[in-house]
Amino acid sequence: MEPTRPAEDLLSSQPPPDPELRDPEDPGSEAPDGSDTVVLSLFACAAEPGNPEADASASSLQGSSLKHSTTLTNRQRGNEVSALPATLDSLSIHQLAAQGELSQLKEHLRKGDNLVNKPDDHGFTPLIWASAFGEIQTVRFLLDWGADPHILAKERESALSLASMGGYTDIVGLLLEHDVDINIYDWNGGTPLLYAVRGNHVKCVEALLARGADLTTEADSGYTPMDLAVALGYRKVQQVMENHILKLFQSSLGPVGPE
């Protein structure tokens, strides 16, 4: 993955340029029209006026992106066959994991013992790709096959951070069951909680807080998860964190007995 641009002012009025689309195996390739993307970016402009609760993934973000091929879009639309067999045969193990092509993925894994944790040029393993695109059945299969959920990519990207960024709460829970570091940080200080907040993923924020995610961690920009929620106008996420802080405070006081 290409590193993101240096962080700019969070509330900058200048619209960021469109993100450059990238392929798992070909960093220089151009994305076809209609491809789904997930952008790894912690620093974005403020929410649109009049719609502060809008999902952050709908806005134009700075940074690099992870790209599905159009076959995944077709499968999500309900097609029984996600790609022609000849097309599937040409996909790498990382692309198959990102698209949830379990049958072909199993065939690839049978070819070698070390393929399950094989990194691509950016250090992304099949598990990281599957986590980034919400392929929970693929994530579960890879973990059962022996995939290591603790592996970090070249810029310290993790399966947990990318799943949190996408709001894939089930995958977040599955990874946490394998004792991954809930407060793992990437090259710009982003943690799973910070990315979940940035994406306005309420359920994911709740799940991370329930498992002990640190609310005080700052990204390199100086923003804590609460700072980010307030600056972006994500009131539901802010309320979740405020309620969590209140519970922590109440539990620290202990039971109140009669005078």
Automatic annotation (TrEMBL):
<keyword id="KW-0238">DNA-binding</keyword>
<dbReference type="GO" id="GO:0003677">
    <property type="term" value="F:DNA binding"/>
</dbReference>
<feature type="repeat" description="ANK">
    <location>
        <begin position="188"/>
        <end position="220"/>
    </location>
</feature>
<dbReference type="GO" id="GO:0005737">
    <property type="term" value="C:cytoplasm"/>
</dbReference>
<dbReference type="InterPro" id="IPR002110">
    <property type="entry name" value="Ankyrin_rpt"/>
</dbReference>
<dbReference type="GO" id="GO:0042826">
    <property type="term" value="F:histone deacetylase binding"/>
</dbReference>
<dbReference type="InterPro" id="IPR036770">
    <property type="entry name" value="Ankyrin_rpt-contain_sf"/>
</dbReference>
<dbReference type="Pfam" id="PF12796">
    <property type="entry name" value="Ank_2"/>
</dbReference>
<keyword id="KW-0040">ANK repeat</keyword>
<dbReference type="InterPro" id="IPR017362">
    <property type="entry name" value="DNA-bd_RFXANK"/>
</dbReference>
<feature type="region of interest" description="Disordered">
    <location>
        <begin position="1"/>
        <end position="78"/>
    </location>
</feature>
<dbReference type="GO" id="GO:0045944">
    <property type="term" value="P:positive regulation of transcription by RNA polymerase II"/>
</dbReference>
<feature type="repeat" description="ANK">
    <location>
        <begin position="122"/>
        <end position="154"/>
    </location>
</feature>
<dbReference type="GO" id="GO:0005634">
    <property type="term" value="C:nucleus"/>
</dbReference>
<keyword id="KW-0963">Cytoplasm</keyword>
<feature type="compositionally biased region" description="Polar residues">
    <location>
        <begin position="57"/>
        <end position="76"/>
    </location>
</feature>
<feature type="repeat" description="ANK">
    <location>
        <begin position="155"/>
        <end position="187"/>
    </location>
</feature>
<keyword id="KW-0677">Repeat</keyword>
<protein>
    <submittedName>
        <fullName>DNA-binding protein RFXANK</fullName>
    </submittedName>
</protein>
